[in-house]
Structures are given as structure tokens and as C-alpha cells.
Amino acid sequence: MRTNIKIRLLSPLCHYGDEALGVMQAARTQKYKYKDEFIDIPVYSGNAFRGELRRLIMRDYLDKLGITDEGVSTNLYYMLFTGGALTSGSRYNKVGQKRELRKMCPPLSLFGTALGDQIPEGKMKVAIFVPVCQETADYTGIESNLSFYDMLEDTFYTRKDDLKSKDFNINEMEEKGKKKENPVQMKYEMQCLSAGTELTGDIVIENDKEIEKACLKAGLEKLKEYGYIGGKSATGHGKIKLGYDIDVDTKVYYDYLQENKDTMRNWIRTIEGIL
User: Fold this and answer.
1) Per the domain annotation, does 140 fall within a domain?
2) CB within 8 A of 14, min separation 6: which ones?
3) Strand 186-193 to strand 152-159: parallel, antiparallel, or no bridges (unpaired)?
4) Domain that holds residue 84
5) Residues 111, 81, 129, 226, CA torsion sign
6) Rounded to a whole number, what is the distance in angstroms from the first to the last CA of the chain?
7) Each residue's pLDDT tens digit, 130-174
8) What is the dihedral of CA 57, 63, 64, 70, to 10 degrees?
9) Do 242 and 220 form a contact (C-beta atoms < 8 A)?
């Protein structure tokens, strides 16, 4: 199964590369061939989208099983929400147990995880999301009169030292003997994709089952409702309008969770003990 994903930015998107540039954060880019040369084009990584989706789907899964309020162990949390970590001496390595994992936890069937010394592979593949522009037309199949250069903007914020700029009852004994220092404040800059930019990509599920398709759609609905991706969302960045095309009813997934709730809860706690 393949579903096309469309993302329209309703506020600037902050999604950074790995290169450290002091107080300047440059947008994440990938090289694409355009007019006989390779150029760096800003993208939103499939890994980042996958991470956003995983957290929402896993939280929803635990909510429906009534486990969220009870809490989970640190190792179980990592296994479910971040992909886990390999450990030696696993007691979870039989083929039947891996099949049970897919049956008991459809989200893990999609995303995969590390469990003991095994890595049950996820069925879901997420593309790198690229802006719809002149330079990506050969890859997206969508013509545009805009260049990605028109979509990039630099924005900056300042961090002020409120301790120095506002009245506050500071312990005088603590301050006694200290030299008067300049306020601790700074300016930092970010390169963003502007509001109005459209990103496109897709998601593929290999050997998909109806439950897994419905699980993915449920997660996309959660992301659509949540409405943010990328960094600095606390200050309004990364607000989105999400579009997708999956011909399945999420009721299939939620009915499955309800019907198998007790069995799944027992399975989760058993796995928690193994970890």
C-alpha cells in the first residue's frame, strides 16, 4: 500500500541540519540534481516525520488499552516510543514470538523496534519530504513556477535576561560580593521554510494488512489533529495542514484494540518483564 502525503505549512517550519553554525541554525538539506548540477534543497526528513507519527500512534495505543495512566517502565517506553536498544541474552527470539508482536501491537508492526538482541523490522517506509518547486519537479511530478530560494527565510529571536530587566526580590546575601555583570542575553537566528510552502512525500507499507493500514490512518488523523511538526512549535512554528489518501476506516483498528484489550495488556506487561 502506498499513500501520498501532502503538507502545507501554515507557519514557518524549523527543521535543522547536523552542522553547527554557532547561533545560526541552517535548514536541513539534501542534494538533488537540477539542470546538470547537484544543489542543496531544503527538506523535511522522513525520519522526523516517522518520529512524530510514532509518538502519537503509540500514545494512542496505550490510551486505548488503559495503560497510559498506569505508567510503563523506562525500557518499555524506549521500546515502544523510540525503537528500543539491543541487549544481550534475549529470551524473545522465536519466530512465533515475532508474529505475536505484530498481532499484539500493530504500531510496532509498522515501525519495528529493538527487542533483546533482535530487531523485528517495521513494514513502513517513509519518504523524505521535499518542497513543491521548480527544482524538484522531476522528482515530484508537480510543476511549479516557484524556486525553493523564494521559500527560505531567516528569522531571529532574542533571549533577554529578565533578572536584570525586571524588579524581583533577589536574595541580597547571595548577591553580596559579586561583581555586577552584564545581562545574560543573546540573539539567535534560524533558517526556515516559509508559511505557504507545500511539501510532498509518501508512505509505503509492505505486505500490508487491513489492521496496519487502519492503524496508520489513525496515526495520521492524530497528527492532523495535533497540527505541528518540526522545531520551535512552542513558539508557533511548524503549524501544518495535512492531507493523505488511505481508503480504510479507522474503526477497523479501534475495534481490534477493543476486542483484544485484555490479551494485549497482558502481552505488554509480559514484555515489560522480559525487558
Assistant:
1) yes
2) 25, 190, 192, 230, 231, 232, 237, 238
3) antiparallel
4) 2-148+191-274
5) positive
6) 33
7) 999 999 999 999 999 999 999 999 887 776 656 555 555 555 545
8) 140
9) yes
